[in-house]
Structures are given as C-alpha cells and as structure tokens.
Amino acid sequence: MAGDKGENSQDSRYWGGLLPEEYIVGKATFIWKSVDPYTGKYRWERFLKLYTNRQRMNTKLFIFLTILLSACSSYQDKRLEYALALAEENRQELEKVLKYYQNSPKKLAAAHFLIQNMPYYYEYDSQQLDTVKTIIKDALKEKRAPWIKSLIISDQKVKMNQDIFYTLRKKYDIQTITADYLINNIDLAFKVWKEQPWNKNLCFEDFCELILPYRIANEKLSDWRNTYYNKYVPLLDSLYKGNDVIEACNTLVRILKKEGFYYNAQFKIPHLDALFLMENRAGYCKETCDISLYAMRAVGIPVATDQMVYSPEYQGGHSWNVVRDTTGQFIPFLYTDYEASRDMKDDGRKKGKSLEIVLAYKKQTSCLKGYSCNT
C-alpha cells in the first residue's frame, strides 16, 4: 500500500484492520521501484511489475526510471566513499567493519548507514569540561533533603566555567572511532531489535534511527550500550514481559524516576557522556532526554528526542522524548515529569514547530509527533 511515506509504507498485514474506503484515492497498476529494506539494494526483478494486464511499459519511461534510480544508488556510494576518504588514517578501521559484515546484508547496511552519517559527528574534549563534571559530581555528594530536586552551585564556580564552549577541542568520529566499538554497537543493537517482542514490525529504517545510533550528539564516546544493557535489561525483564512498547517504555520510565534527578541549568555545556550520567543524575531537560535515550535504546525500545529550539512564551528551548508506537505514531514522554500515553494530547506547553533529533544527516522537522501543533 502506498502511503505518505513511500520508503516505509505498509498494508493491513502489519497494522491490522481494514482501510476505510474513503481513504483510497487510486488503484496501483505497477511497481515502479523496489528496494530491499535490509540491504538497501534494488530488487530489479520487481521493477515495473504490472498489477493489471500484461502490457509492456513504455520503453522511454523504463529507461528514464532506470537512469534515475541508478543516480540515487550512485549518490549513496559517493556518500560512503566521501566518509571513508575523510577518515584518512582511520579508514582502515572503518573498512574492517565493512569486511566483518560482508556476509551479513542487514548488518552491512547498518554499518553503511552509520559510516555515511559519521562525518558530521564529533565529541568535545578538554580539561575544562572535566572540571565542570567534577563540580557537578561534588555538588551531588552533598547531603540534601529528599524533597529538594534542584542542584545549586556557587556563582563563582559557574562564572569561571561559563564560556566553556569557546575553549573545547573537537575530535571527529570519522578519524578516531574504532572497528571494535562500531561492531559491538551494531551487534548489541541488532540483538535487542530482534529479541524484544514489541519490535516485531519495526522496520529497518526506523531501527537505524531509533535504536542503532552509537551516539546522541557531541558527548564523549563510551561503552554505554553494554553498561546500560547489563543494568536495565534484568530490571525491565523482572517487571514486564509483554509486547506493548508503550508499557515497556513506561516500566523503564518508572525505574529511572526512582533513581532520582536534580535539576541544574547553570552551565551551558555539551552533552555529557553516558557513563557520567549513569552515576550523576543532574542537568535539565537535555540530560533527562539523554538518560532516557541511553537506557531505552540499550534495552531495545525505539525512541528519539524532540526539541523546541525556542518558545516566545517561555523564552527558551525545551526537549522531550518520543517513543515509536507499533501504530507508527510517536508518543511523547519525559521520565522526570510524565509517562507515555496514547491518550495524551500534549504536556501543557504551547508548541510550535519542533525538531526530531536523529542521526541521519537529513534532519526531519515535525510537530509534536503523533499530535497536531500550532504554528
């Protein structure tokens, strides 16, 4: 069935029930393009296959479509080669990954996806960032009343580190990442994708954006997937064994909420690394979203972060998480504030256009996923 997303259209075998007749605007007559969702390769034997009578398609049309699709394939190849060339001395590490998965089409396609988008990602590295992390860590050690949920750090310490972004050095993933790191990330991501019952109909494209990514933004890379997997999979399994992704998400939300979080928005710093956040729950909505992403993706729950860059009403930005429901809708949640609900229309904030933070270079703009918004 052709819907509004040609690269991921599904029929009632996947979403169940019958499509109302008034939604049908035309009848398919032939397949003009067919791509294997796991390998990204064209299935030429299905091109221009007729659904009706066995008329021959216009030769000129066939030639045109062939040229067009060949150009698309060439573009993806060029993106991969561009990334490998940009890696310079690290190219050998990336080629190890491609060779490692040469007999595993699905994982090879996942490796292509990560490497093609890798040139745009980096981490910040500096002693001053380590200093800020130490300040936050020390502040969390101080005893405080259990009802206090904010973390206040002395103005002097904040002032000394307020311009941290201007002093940080960038380390680009494409030139530093190792083959072992990528292989471990891909293997664990596939493991939870295939094992969790709520992912039965999660397509490869959504898997790549919502479970597979090895990083969130500009945080320092770490062995986060193993660490979060080992901690949260046993906890989730002990509390929920069903196939409802929303209930699985909310079960983990309740686990995270019990672990606590202290709000602090005094520092304007990059994303903090996953292992630091595992032990030091402090920050603002950016950090709460990051903690959720690490925990949810490690156990195989497909999630992303939506971001409102600026709101005239609140004079600032805001971030929240979204979980992909089995219906294809994206349901919002923020583990410190509210759980995911199919009946929830919004969180009370006025929202305009928001951005969905994804790994792929071509970012998507959206409203609050699954719901309408005012622009």
What does this structure look like?
By secondary structure, the protein is an alpha+beta fold. Helix content is 40%, strand content 12%. It has twelve helices and eleven strands. The chain has helices spanning 12-15, 59-86, 91-100, 105-117, 127-141, 155-160, 179-195, 204-210, 224-239, 245-258, 274-279, 285-299, and strands spanning 30-31, 49-50, 122-125, 169-172, 262-263, 282-283, 303-311, 316-324, 330-333, 354-357, 364-366. The strands form four sheets. Strands 9-8-7-10-11 form a five-stranded antiparallel β-sheet. β8 (316-324) and β9 form a beta hairpin. α3 (91-100) packs antiparallel against α4, α3 (91-100) packs parallel to α7 and α9 crosses α12. The radius of gyration is 23 Å and the shape is globular.
Sum this structure up briefly.
This protein is of the alpha+beta class. The protein is built from twelve helices and eleven strands. It has helices spanning 12-15, 59-86, 91-100, 105-117, 127-141, 155-160, 179-195, 204-210, 224-239, 245-258, 274-279, 285-299, and strands at 30-31, 49-50, 122-125, 169-172, 262-263, 282-283, 303-311, 316-324, 330-333, 354-357, 364-366.
